[in-house]
Design goal:
6-stranded parallel beta sheet, TIM Barrel, two-stranded antiparallel ribbon, 8 helices, alpha/beta
Length: 277
C-alpha cells in the first residue's frame, strides 16, 4: 500500500516537473522573439577612433552630383572613376568627416582627424542610392546628401532616403525646389528653405540644420533666410577649401566631375591652390 502511494506521488511530481520545464522553455522562446519588434539599422559609418587629430590649415569639401555614363557633362562622373576616387581616399589615409565636424572646425577651431575631407552629393539622383550608397558603406565613409524634397519620388524615394539616414548618413536641405535663390524675393527664399525643412521633418523626422544653395546661387539676404529656418551652415559652389573662421553660410566646395582624373583628384585634396580645369 505504501509502495503504491509512493509510486503515485513520484509520478505526480515528475509530471509537474516536466510541465514546469516545458513552460519555462516556451516562455524563454517567446521572450527572445523580436519578430514583431521594430528593427533599427545600425550605422555603417566606421570612423577610426585611433586616428590622431589636428586643426588643419584648411579642409577640402568635395561636391558631387550625378554618377553615370553621361558624356560631355562635367556635372557627371563615371561610376568607374568615382570608385577609383573613393579607393584612393581609403588607401591614402583620408578621413571623410561629417557636416557637424566641419561646422565645429569652422566656428570653434575644433580638431578633426588628420587628412580630413568632406563628401557631399547634391540633388538626390537615383544613382546616389544605387551606386554611391553601397560604395560609401563598403569603406565606412561619412557623407552628406543634399536633396530637394519637392523632387523626391522622381529620382530617389523617401524609403531610400530613410534607409540611408538610418545607416548613419546626413540627409540635408537643398531647397524644396531646385531654383536660383538669388532670383527669389526675400520671402520666397525663406519659403523655399522652410518647405524643405518641413518635408525633411515630416518624412524623415529630421530637424535639419544644413543647407546647400541650388546652383550655388545666393545673395545678401540668403544668410538671413537660412537663419530664419534654424540653418547653422550653408554650402556654396565657390571653389576652394574651408578654413577656421570662414562665414559658415558661404562655405566653399571643390567641384568633382569627369574632368577630374585621379591625378587632379589627388591634387584637389592635398593642395589648396589646385589646378583650375
Amino acid at each position: 500500500m505504501k509502495r503504491n502511494i509512493l509510486i503515485a506521488l513520484l509520478t505526480v511530481f515528475c509530471s509537474a516537473l516536466l510541465l514546469l520545464l516545458s513552460g519555462c522553455s516556451l516562455q524563454g522562446r517567446e521572450g527572445s522573439s523580436t519578430s514583431d519588434a521594430p528593427k533599427k539599422t545600425a550605422s555603417v559609418i566606421t570612423p577610426d577612433v585611433n586616428v590622431p587629430t589636428a586643426v588643419p590649415k584648411g579642409i577640402p569639401v568635395l561636391m558631387y552630383h550625378k554618377i553615370g555614363p553621361d558624356k560631355d557633362n562635367d556635372a557627371v562622373i563615371s561610376e568607374e572613376l568615382f570608385k577609383k576616387q573613393m579607393k584612393l581616399l581609403k588607401e591614402e589615409g583620408f578621413h571623410p568627416i561629417s557636416m557637424q565636424q566641419l561646422y565645429d572646425y569652422v566656428t570653434k577651431g575644433t580638431p578633426v582627424p588628420v587628412k580630413p575631407v568632406v563628401l557631399t552629393f547634391d540633388d538626390g539622383y537615383a544613382d546616389t542610392y544605387s551606386i554611391v550608397f553601397p560604395v560609401l558603406k563598403e569603406y565606412g565613409f561619412d557623407a552628406t546628401f543634399f536633396v530637394n524634397p519637392g523632387d523626391v519620388g522622381q529620382r530617389m524615394t523617401w524609403a531610400q532616403l530613410k534607409e540611408m539616414k538610418e545607416a548613419g548618413y546626413t540627409i540635408a536641405n537643398h531647397g524644396y525646389q531646385h531654383i536660383h535663390m538669388k532670383e527669389l524675393t526675400n520671402a520666397q527664399q525663406v519659403e523655399n528653405i522652410q518647405k524643405g525643412q518641413e518635408a525633411l521633418k515630416d518624412k524623415l523626422g529630421i530637424s535639419n540644420v544644413w543647407f546647400c544653395y541650388p546652383y550655388g546661387s545666393f545673395n545678401t539676404y540668403s544668410e538671413e533666410a537660412c537663419k530664419a529656418n534654424n540653418i547653422k551652415a550653408a554650402l556654396s559652389m565657390n571653389p576652394g577649401w574651408v578654413h577656421v573662421g570662414d562665414n559658415p553660410y558661404t562655405l566653399h566646395r571643390i567641384w568633382i566631375g569627369n574632368a577630374v582624373d585621379l591625378n587632379h583628384f589627388r591634387e584637389r585634396i592635398t593642395t589648396e591652390h589646385y589646378t583650375d580645369l
